[in-house]
Amino acid sequence: MPHFKIIVATLLATTLAGCFYPVHKTLQPAATARVFDSTQQPASNATVTLVSSSVLPVPFEILRTSVPALGGQAEFHAIKDWRIEALTIGGMQFYQWTWCVTAPGHETLVSGPFRRGKFDDEPRFVLTPGTPSPCPTGADTDY
Fold first, then answer.
1. 1-13: buried (b, 16+ CB within 10 Å) or exposed (e) per residue?
2. CATH no. for residue 88?
3. pLDDT in tens, 11-42
4. Among 17, 37, 53, 142, which residue's CB has the most CB atoms within a 10 Å radius?
């Protein structure tokens, strides 16, 4: 029991001194993407990628999830994690999400980045015939 009191006192002192607090953040929202080819048929050969990136204090990619669009539909599960933030400049992290859809014989579709409130968790993508390219990486984009 004495260890518990020490831990609580340390957490309380640290929290009050630096205004640190724990927060449960959404790193990747739950989403269902629907992909269609140019004839409006479900594109079952597509791969949908959801890129999660941090905006502040320093932009960087934190997560990249790729899912095959089985029957033209790709499901993404929410990923959440506890983080420690501070009430200081640059002490809070904000996240944004970017969609990327690739399929053989079709142009790569990139949509976003979107922040919370602007993110569409049920997007509908229509592919255009053309030459595919790889999804951009953190080094290729401004996220």
1. eeeeeeeeeeeee
2. 2.60.40
3. 665 555 558 888 888 888 999 999 999 899 99
4. 53
